Amino acid sequence: MTDQISKLLLDAFDQGMSADLIQKAIDITKYADPGTPYGYLKSVLSDWLSQGIYTMQDWQQHQQKKQAAKHRDIPDIPIYKI
Known about the structure:
Layout: H1 3-14, H2 19-32, H3 37-50, H4 56-70
Helix pairs in contact: 1-3, 2-3
């Protein structure tokens, strides 16, 4: 782990993000295998902090909302041929 990544993680922790959520961000970054892990991790952490996601519970609720939005029923709207 580079000093730059260590500082990024400490900054997220200092802003109130839980250690287990920071570990989740690291795991997501490793799974995604980006070309620039620092930039990807920074983007994930910044996104979560901007959305008020500070704990695993917050993250899980956010994921549930995303899933619910994906599975919304499409209204029955008739499509007419012109």
